[in-house]
Design a protein that fits this description.
By secondary structure, this protein is an alpha+beta fold. The chain is about 20% helix and about 30% strand. About 30% of the residues are buried. Bound molecules: uracil.
Length: about 240
């Protein structure tokens, strides 16, 4: 037996949190009955689980790393008809992005139909490190660098970069930052709080996954061995 929200995320319907929302909205039925309890237990091989009337099956799990280009939205579909990150990947599986990158942010984005995997990477408790390459509108001052590493108050929460490094010794507008934060627009908002504007942003890595030489707009499929690294203690 498996909890209903876990079953839905394992089947690639959505992350566990999003699955809870679907349950709460009364969109999930088990053997024809609407279930609104997250903890409801289902028998994976026998029960007939439907979301919006559509039967849910266990699917093959797939994982991709995309080098997201500018001008793409990190959703599965866009009401304004803009190009989404999912449009860039050829697969018959129903995949979704792990977390989000802004419209004009480039770099490493994971896409999968494995809700547990996505959940693990995004959960703040797991403190997964993200590394970003940042171009600022002006030189980053020494004092401000220290403040951002020690922590500032953002949305009433103490917030910091784990590290900030200048990309080269002569250019103080180009920095590499690492953080375990996944809040929306986190990098931009951190710099903005001290009067800087982020002109360009690229994610180099997310947990054990690195962009390496992957060209912008291209993607690679990951295998089981690479995926299992996510669950290692050291990231
Ligand atoms: N932080 C941001 O500000 N934007 C992103 O796209 C990712 C992290």
């Amino acid at each position: 037996m498996t909890r209903l929200n876990k079953f839905l995320s394992e089947c690639g319907v959505a992350s566990r949190r999003k699955s809870d929302e679907l349950i709460e909205q009364g969109r999930v039925t088990v053997n024809g009955k609407t279930i609104i309890e997250f903890g409801f237990q289902v028998n994976e091989s026998e029960d007939d689980v439907k979301v919006d009337g559509e039967r849910i099956h266990h699917r093959n799990k797939v994982y991709f790393i995309l080098n997201k280009p500018k001008g793409t939205v990190t959703t599965t579909d866009d009401e304004k008809g803009r190009r989404t990150v999912v449009d860039l990947i050829k697969t018959n599986e129903k995949i979704f992005p792990v977390g989000r990158l802004d419209y004009n942010t480039t770099g490493l984005l994971l896409l999968t139909n494995d809700g547990e995997f996505a959940n693990h990477l995004m959960h703040p408790r797991n403190k997964i490190t993200r590394e970003y390459q940042v171009k600022l509108d002006k030189d980053l001052g020494r004092e401000d660098k220290i403040k951002l590493e020690r922590g500032i108050i953002l949305e009433r929460r103490r917030s910091r970069f784990t590290s900030i490094q200048f990309t080269d010794t002569k250019n103080f507008r180009s920095v590499t930052v690492t953080t375990v934060e996944g809040r929306n627009h986190f990098v931009k908002r951190m710099f903005h709080a001290l009067g800087y504007f982020v002109k360009e942003l690229n994610r180099n890595s997310y947990g054990p996954f690195k962009l390496k030489e992957l060209p912008v707009g291209s993607y690679v499929k990951l295998d089981e061995k690479e995926i299992s690294k996510v669950y290692d203690k050291k990231k």
